[in-house]
Amino acid sequence: MKESRDGRRGDTGDFSFDALFGNLVNELLPSFKEETDSLDAQSVGGNEGLPNGTMRLPSDATRSSQALLTPLFPEVDALLSLFKDSCRELVDLRQQIDGRLYNLKKDVSSQNSKHCKTLAELEKGVDSLFDSFARLDSRISSVGQTAAKIGDHLQSADAQRETASQTIDLIKYLMEFNSSPGDLMELSPLFSDDSRVAEAASIAQKLRSFAEEDIGRQGINVTSATGNATASRGLEVAVANLQDYCNELENRLLARFDAASQKRELSAMSECAKILSQVMNADTRLVLGDQGVQTSPNNVARGLSALYKEITDTVRKEAATIMAVFPSPNDVMAILVQRVLEQRVTAVLDKLLVKPSLVNLPPMEEGGLLLYLRMLAVAYEKTQDLARELRAVGCGDLDVEGLSESLFSVHKDEYPEHEQASLRQLYKAKMEELHAESLQASESGTIGRSKGSSIASSHQQISVTVVTEFVRWNEEAISRCTLFSSQPATLASNVKAVFTCLLDQVSQYITDGLERARDSLTEAAALRERFVLGTSVSRRVAAAAASAAEAAAAAGESSFRSFMVAVQRCASSVAIVQQKHHSQYFANSISRLLLPVDGAHAASCEEMATAMSSAEAAAYKGLQQCIETVMAEVERLLSAEQKATDYKSPEDGMAPDHRPTNACTRVVAYLSRVLEAAFTALEGLNKQAFLTELGNRLHKGLVNHWQKFTFNPSGGLRLKRDITEYGEFVRSFNAPSVDEKFELLGIMANVFIVAPESLSTLFEGTPSIRKDAQRFIQLREDYKSAKLAAKLSSLWPSSS
């Protein structure tokens, strides 16, 4: 077979179907292949073999006879019968398998239905079990809640019972103290038992607090009822007896403390110190009130007044006894007053005044540093009043004012630093508040607002009210400086430092406000630059750009007005601090305190000028931007509205138009509208300088603009009318140099009206403008045809 294939590959282009069929038969029927081989062997001598393994007979007759003698497929019948038997067996097997499959499907379906039924029953059982568990859990929870409520009720009832029992005891003790004035002999054994001193002190302080609170309420709600008057008098007796008892208890504790100190009994000394602190804490509660309540300077002032009045009354009562008993009453009074100040007053001040750290400032939500400074001022003032009262009662040779002053030495050492830190903290909090308000306003006001107005209004404006608040903070700080500083030099130093804080705050605030207003001018300028197009654009693009340019112009005008408002408010704010406003803060308050010290007033004036220099620089830059904004819009209007025919009208025999051109009318109307804000906001030299600069820029811009056109005589008359209109407007600037420039422009416009031969005599009286006039002459329609260049070079050789 391989040989035949090789032979077939070698015989290029010769294909035989017989050879192909023979190869297939040889491969499938080996028996036929053997018979064929034997036949080939017998006839090998007389036949010619082919490369594909078949034999070529010598002739057609011989091939026919050979086919008749030997069948081509002798085993076909046997194979057909075998195939038929196989098919029958396969059909039988398929039927058997189909029957078995049917039976299996039937069994599976039956088992599946049983399984589903079992699962459904199990699910029902599980659901009922879950329901049972849920009911059980709910029942357990209900029982637990009921038990908790019962426990709460029992606890509350027990607490109420305990409170009621304590209240009954307190009422009984209060009735004992309320029996008669000065009678402490009929009190319960509790108040005389040395082993129960701590309990007695605690009860006495509770009774004293209740009685004083009730007297305070009676003093506020005074009525004419007899019962109220009686109750008030009864509680006053109780308060007096309780105060006497506390004094007696304090003496007993001090005696016990001295005895324990001599014996070195530390535990007894500690116990006495704890009880004494309880007695002294009553004074603190009287001043500060209940814990957890926000302490205010007014409340502290009332509490200190009440406490110091009680101390004064007690010292006065003791003074009467001392005067009658001791041979040297002044010495004893000095010791008594010193003891009162060093013990009772110091204990109260230590609780009241906690010196804050300058590194970690107390938050503004808790009052910040300002609350501490106000409390310090109240305590200092009230303590000084107490010292004067005690001096009037009598304290011997004791320097009671110096002693009371020493109580505040630790606070006065760093007072200037705390005052300046407080002002900075207030400023920071105010700026955060204003920033939050600005963000909220910008978020709520953005909808429905045009682009031009949104640029100007999205920036926070300077507020004179805010600067007034800065000054009010400073005035309060200066009042504290006056209170704490007794020496003129110290006072001047502190006042100067505090006033410098005000200058820094005002300078930073108005400078930031001006910079924000300048940002709006910068944004408007960016909008203008965005819509500057070339000449080769489509009509649709040009229309869209013109519309966008109108919006940019509106933004520029709005920003101009906003900046002028900022400048006006800046000037008002500076005037508040300086001497030009009705408050005259510096002139009336600061100068008076600085004058006693040589050079302090001059130094503050210099610092004031230095602080305002940054605001002046921002204002100057902003005003320059305002001029740029105005001139950009003027140039846009001139470019959009000015037509070539305005100054070169056809000579059709019609009368010349003596009205201003549309571009001139639009520019003057725009300038009149936008400069209203400048006339209102600016004043004095600032106004004069701004308008002079704007007038010079306007003159230059108009001259450059007219250089783009060609003029005939009628156009020259129209130009002269425009110049007159511009000149009349700029007269409102009150700038003589600007008026002169526009007058010269009117003279130069005559070059377009006169005949060529009259040009030589036109500027005989004003030779200084010949060079500018020659530039105008070049714009004449007949400049080339009349050969004016040659004529002018011969007439004015120096100008050529």
Automatic annotation (TrEMBL):
Gene Ontology biological process terms from the UniProt entry: exocytosis; Golgi to plasma membrane transport
Keyword NADP: no
Residue ranges of the region described as Disordered: 36-61
Alphabetical list of Pfam families matching this protein: Sec10_HB, Sec10_N
Keywords per UniProt: Coiled coil, Exocytosis, Transport
Ranges for domain Exocyst complex component Sec10 N-terminal: 77-193
Domain Exocyst complex component Sec10-like alpha-helical bundle: 199-278, 280-791
Superkingdom assignment: Eukaryota
GO cellular component: exocyst
Annotated family: Belongs to the SEC10 family.
Designated name of the protein: Exocyst complex component Sec10-like
Phylogenetic classification of the source organism: Eukaryota, Viridiplantae, Streptophyta, Embryophyta, Tracheophyta
